[in-house]
Design brief:
The chain is α+β, with helices and mostly antiparallel strands and 633 residues long. It has 14 helices and 34 strands. The longest helix has 18 residues. It is flat and about 90 Å long. Keywords: Glycosyltransferase, Transferase. This is Glycosyltransferase. InterPro entries: Glyco_trans_2-like, Nucleotide-diphossugar_trans, TarS/TarP_linker.
């Protein structure tokens, strides 16, 4: 709960120098700072999204010389929401740094959050981020950012993280200021926006904050911040000059120098430097490099070379991909840099033309076409593809690139064909990619979305007791292989052949399982499972299975508690256990059975459910009092 702070000051103007006790306004959980400059069409939505946040808050709107009516609208909000919305007016400064700093100087919240006037928050954004901060005593909380017409960062929002270290995460990839910051940390270390910058001031600010954050947390399961594109292109970041490559690389040296002044040489610094090289330096050797003139290309290459001379360590180099390492080697060869940019940005055309099982039924024969097409083919030689391969990547979280399986294929021009031996794949889901090498650069893309419409999904196969299910993903239609039935349900029907009562009130079931063209190995049939419909409790019964899919299982019904029990056959097919409901014709179901157990009467009634005709069993126990009441009716 906010704590009311009492401030004692000496009022020298009062007789006797009396001490006057002044009670300050209660502290708030979060101060939201909104810089405003000519954002009138978006300001309503922004401020409304902040007012609906169910947290103790204050909203500080800093009008930076607006001339479109935005200042008047902000004043209207302040008049109707006294004590929550405050407005400060100042002359236009030309950037967001000064208004954000002014807002920080007025903030009273334990945390501060920066929101641009053309963006908005999800209704539960601050509540969820503050809850995360409260659980972990966080200094910075990242809330998931989603883009509307603008690209939003995503690598750091794969999952919630209570406490995430800088070195082993992707949080440093996000250097925008749209985060929750502990205000005490900002004040203690003098963390402010660089008012001399019109672009990149938030990168300097957030870099500095990361250097002093003890605990960083991530809220990834809720859309917290909505990043909005302005159709009129009036946002500073939407102006073409805001991402001038040479100016950007020169600007990025400031946060790099700041970070290096706080982080000693070693793995952590190399990890952070990798972000700046990949996203700030080498990114400008791609499309911006192709769009630049001859003189500017030399300037870009020279600025990147200067960064490399100062900050490129062996540890950073090891963390870079082949394309970026190739660029480093070519910084003095402008033509080579142009060529690499064309290869990286080329459209990768690929098509699946045939898909079938090979003669051994353990290999998937894959045929297709692949080609690279330069974005600006005029005046540039064609991009001749070299070696082609199929790459199967595991979908499981935490699997690294070394887990991928590379399958060489034969190629002739754009055509390729190869066989994937699925017997070597561990259990899991594998996504199929096609990779092509062009002048030492590897381009990889998913395979299957573009395909001949006559291609059908190959039928499942059993390979060494494991079910293998090729399939096309939804909604994109890419080719994947499920080894073990993790996301694709194996086909199967379990039918009751006969049910009979045996000694000791054992219900014996004879049945058969069919799995389309598959022949289940008897060793894959594990249990008959009785599951109580109300409580979810289960009883497993051993199964005697035979080649051809027949099986026998018996359950001592007296061991089942009263309730309604549904019958399943459970198989182990190389992945998670697979269950099939036992289907039954009514005439094949055994009759009810009644017997005494102590002073109670027990009844077991097998039956086929209405509609789908599945085997279930009702077990009842009637005590003496209930039995007597029934007899006296």
């Amino acid at each position: 709960m906010p704590v009311t702070r009492t401030i004692l000051r000496r009022a020298g103007a009062q007789p006797g120098g009396a001490v006057v006790e002044v009670t300050a306004a209660p502290a708030v959980d979060v101060t939201v700072i909104v810089p405003v400059h000519n954002c009138r069409p978006y300001l309503d939505r922004c401020l409304t999204s902040l007012l609906v946040q169910r947290v103790s808050k204050e909203i500080v709107v800093v009008d930076d010389g607006s001339t479109d009516g935005g200042a008047e609208l902000a004043d209207l909000y302040a008049a109707h929401h006294r004590g929550v919305v405050r407005v400060v007016h100042q002359p236009a400064s030309g950037g967001a740094g000064r208004p954000r700093n002014v807002g920080l100087s007025l903030a009273r919240g334990e945390y501060v959050f920066f929101c641009d006037a053309d963006d908005y928050l999800g209704p539960e954004a601050l509540e969820r981020m503050l809850a995360m901060a409260g659980r972990n005593d966080s200094d910075i909380v990242l809330g998931k950012v989603v883009g509307h017409g603008r690209r939003a960062p995503s690598s750091m929002f794969e999952r919630n993280a209570e406490r995430v270290p800088l070195e082993d995460s992707a949080v440093y990839n996000s250097l925008s200021c749209f985060k929750l910051f502990r205000r005490r940390m900002l004040e203690r270390h003098g963390i402010r926006f660089d008012e001399t910058l019109t672009v990149g001031e938030d990168i300097v600010f957030t870099t500095h904050a990361y250097c002093h954050a003890g605990v960083i947390s991530v809220v990834a399961d809720y859309d917290c911040y909505h990043l909005v594109d302005r159709p009129d292109g009036t946002s500073i970041m939407q102006r073409k000059e805001s991402r001038d490559p040479v100016s950007w690389i020169r600007m990025i040296k400031r946060p790099i120098e700041l970070m290096a002044g706080h982080v000693r040489p070693g793995p952590l610094r190399d990890h952070l430097l990798r972000r700046h090289f990949r996203l700030d330096a080498f990114a400008n050797l791609g499309r911006p490099f192709l769009e630049a003139g001859e003189v500017e290309r030399k300037e870009i290459a020279a600025e990147v070379a200067d960064l490399c001379d100062r900050w490129l360590t062996d540890g950073v180099r090891e963390r870079l991909g082949a394309v970026d390492r190739g660029r480093i080697a070519a910084l003095e060869d402008i033509d080579r840099l142009v060529r690499l940019a064309h290869i990286e940005l080329a459209v990768m055309r690929r098509e699946l033309t045939a898909l079938r099982w090979d003669e051994r039924d353990t290999g998937l024969a894959v045929s297709g076409r692949v080609a690279l097409e330069a974005l600006e083919p005029a005046g540039h030689p064609g991009l001749a593809a070299g070696d082609v391969s199929l790459v199967l990547k595991p979908r499981q979280a935490g699997e690294g690139p070394d887990s991928a399986v590379v399958v060489p294929v034969a190629s002739d021009g754009e055509e390729f064909a190869g066989v994937v031996d699925l017997a070597v794949l561990p259990s899991g889901v594998w996504d199929v990619h096609v990779a092509v090498v062009c002048e030492g650069v590897v381009r990889t893309g998913r395979l299957g979305a573009e395909r001949d419409q006559r291609i059908a999904r190959p039928a499942p196969r059993m390979i060494g007791g494991t079910v293998v299910l090729p399939y096309f993903t939804r909604p994109y239609g890419n080719l994947s292989v499920d080894v073990g039935g993790h996301v694709v349900s194996p086909p199967g029907i379990v039918r009751l052949v006969r049910a009979r009562w045996a000694a000791w009130h054992r219900l014996v079931l004879d049945g058969e399982i069919t799995m389309g063209a598959l022949t289940p190995d008897p060793r894959t049939v594990r249990h008959l499972v009785w599951r109580e419909r109300g409580s979810g409790k289960e009883r497993r019964v051993p199964v005697a299975s035979e080649p051809g899919g027949t099986f026998t299982a018996g359950q001592a019904v007296g061991r089942l508690r009263p309730g309604t029990w549904d019958a399943y056959l459970e198989l182990e097919l190389g992945g998670p256990p697979v269950r099939f409901r036992v289907e039954a014709e009514p005439e094949l179901v055994a009759p009810p059975r009644t017997w005494w157990r102590g002073t109670a009467v027990r009844t077991a009634k097998p039956y086929a459910t209405a509609g789908k005709g599945r085997l279930s069993l009702v077990v009842r126990a009637t005590g003496p009092k209930a039995l007597l009441r029934r007899l006296l009716r």
